Amino acid sequence: MRSIERIETSTAAPEPRLRLRARVYTAGYRTMTTLASEMGVHLTALSRVLNGHDWPSPRMQRRLADKLGLTLRELRELL
To answer: Residue 10: is its pLDDT beyond 80?
Structure first.
């Protein structure tokens, strides 16, 4: 019997997510902990969004866009 290797793939496009993480850094947030604290969200929730594992709620999208100086449209292009 032939073995089939299962490949896990992410639905998140890696390039936009990398640009989003770069935007977090250029906005002055050196750690995700600082950004999460200022946004009033749990670090794990923010990490899952920035790493492409979860889609942010509308509330988190507004907070993240505000902290990064982006419009919602610009933020969604990076998610």
So the answer is: no
Chosen CATH of 14-78 out of 1.10.260.40, 1.25.40.10, 2.40.50.1070, 1.10.10.10: 1.10.260.40
Which pTM was predicted?
A: 0.74
> Distance from first CA to last CA of the chain, Å, rounded?
41
Question: Amino acid letter at 8?
Answer: E
Handedness of CA 18, 78, 70, 50 (dihedral sign): negative
Tokens of 34: 């600082």
- As given in the structure block, the two tokens for residue 68 are 């990064």
**Could you give the CA distance from residue 20 to residue 2 in angstroms, rounded to a whole number?**
41
